[in-house]
Amino acid sequence: MDKNQSNAFNMFKAILVVLNSFPTVWNSNATINAVVIAFQNLVNGLVSSEQNQRTGTVGVTLSKGQTLDALINIALAVADAGYAYAVSVSNMTLKQSCTLGRSTLARAKDVDVIALCQNVHDAVNPFAASLTTYGATSATIINLQNAINAFSSITGQPANARAAVRVATESIATQVTAGKKMLSEQLDPLMTQFKTSQPVFYEQYFAAREISNIGHRKTVILKGIIYTGSNVPIMNADVKLSGIATRKKITGADGVYKMTRLHVGTYTLTVSVTGFITQTKTLTVTQNGTVTTNFVLVASTGGGGTTTGTTPPATA
Description:
This protein is an alpha+beta fold and 316 residues long. The protein folds into 3 domains: 3-55 and 160-209; 59-155, no CATH class; 220-308, Carboxypeptidase-like, regulatory domain (Immunoglobulin-like), CATH 2.60.40.1120. 55% of the residues lie in helices and 16% in strands. It is built from 11 helices and 9 strands. Strands 1, 4, 7, 8 and 9 form a 5-stranded mixed beta sheet that branches. Strand 5 and strand 6 form a beta hairpin. The radius of gyration is 33 Å and the shape is elongated.
């Protein structure tokens, strides 16, 4: 994916997070339900295309390289045996056919490697019974032919894999365009009905909708202090982040947590520690920068806790 496609992809995923966070708001609406299912399927297809593009030819190229190495090793062993035998019996034709070096095979084109190795095989095969004491047997020569066949069968695969990458790249472009169109022409207008009746859902949807310039830049920081109602920082508080990214922090003696390199989007912070009531807060970040969210925890024997953005006893 290029930068713009990555931005769109992350926006699509952020929108799905919001939709899946408020299913009861829209899932009884058959029209919205159908669009959301179609959008989810499109994103799933985009994930598959991205994986195909990213995988590329690495695995195939590695397999081809290993097969070539095996062929070269077997061919050189057989050629050396044939060369030694040819010298001993003054067979100049066989000697010439078995004059083969590793560098020659390593630099040769695939088709030439196959031809050179096949030439060695065909030259020594009639003398198989005489080569045992020179380091080759009938079985070794058969192995050479098998190695030639194996390499021949795989030589076209990297080109095929590159073609598959091109198809995946074209699919990504098509899917991103279709996703943007689905949002602007279908989901966006459908969200208008919730502006008054479900303002939190409406605002979070369009906050996620406006995500831009992500995937390559991560410039949002979430931080704060966990402390008691008596302004005492709480140590060993477990702070978990979920949403379009996940993080986990444990506060130190100063009660501070800090999560960096995040995107614009919707997140949920959950704070828990033994002896205190667990608290959760969902927040939508609409622009780059630092967002400070402090938590005042209440002992589990007391009343309900609160989340506050007031100045804590120390600077986070």
